[in-house]
Write a structure and sequence with these properties.
The structure is a single chain. The chain has 192 residues and is an alpha+beta fold. The protein contains eight helices and eight strands, in the order ααβαβααβααββββαβ. An eight-stranded mixed β-sheet has the order 1-7-6-5-2-3-4-8, with helices on both faces. A hairpin with a 2-residue loop joins strand 5 and strand 6. The longest helix is centred in the middle third of the chain and has 15 residues. The N and C termini lie far apart (62 Å).
Length: 192
């Protein structure tokens, strides 16, 4: 007999068995996720890193020497993708009105674009514009990701975050990964 048959309630209280089993941790706020988690995910990725946040601004602020670290990843064969909002789009302008903060959405996007420009033609580095992810940020590192569903009028760091690990086909990880793939395929290159 299996443990689930002998002690079903005890097993279910210790092991995740449902659709949430890919959730490693849930944070009530994005900025509640320790920078050490981000660093481990960035530094541990071997195949691919995707930053699909609308501005990705905070990444540069919270991770010293990020450009050097990403350049090293690219040199080692890792694909590094950035998907950012268009700083000149109507979606960005409307979001700026909602947020009403001095450091505007467009400015935060431009900070990311400037950091990417400084990286030049780093191996494996690509960036595209998309306005279709204004309400959902996905940061993927091989088979793990951090996902932030943005709450209407709050800033990104005030919204919740999920840390996911891919465990099988068509789970939460794959659902969000498909979203990122669609953003990438329909996005416009940052550099023409």
């Amino acid at each position: 007999m299996s443990a689930e048959v002998l002690w079903p309630k005890a097993v279910r209280s210790v092991l995740k068995t449902g659709p949430d089993r890919e959730i490693i941790t849930a944070y009530p706020y994005r900025n509640a996720c320790p920078t050490s988690v981000w660093s481990q995910l960035i530094d541990g990725a071997k195949r691919s890193i995707t930053f699909a946040g609308y501005t990705n601004y905070f990444i540069w602020q919270e991770h010293p020497r990020l450009a050097e670290r990403l350049r090293l990843k690219g040199d080692e064969g890792c694909s590094i993708r950035f998907i950012v909002g268009d700083p000149e789009s109507e979606v960005t302008r409307r979001r700026e009105e909602v947020e009403g903060v001095p450091l505007t959405v467009g400015t935060r996007i431009r900070i990311t674009l400037a950091a990417l420009e400084k990286m030049g033609a780093a191996p494996g580095l690509e960036a595209r514009f998309s306005d279709d992810h204004i309400a959902l940020s996905v940061f993927a590192f091989d088979d793990q990701m951090l996902v932030t569903p943005h709450i209407s009028n709050l800033l990104g760091h005030e919204s919740p975050m999920l840390h996911l690990r891919r465990l099988g086909d068509d789970g939460l990880y794959d659902r969000f990964a498909a979203h990122v793939t669609a953003l990438w395929e329909t996005g416009r290159p940052v550099r023409d």
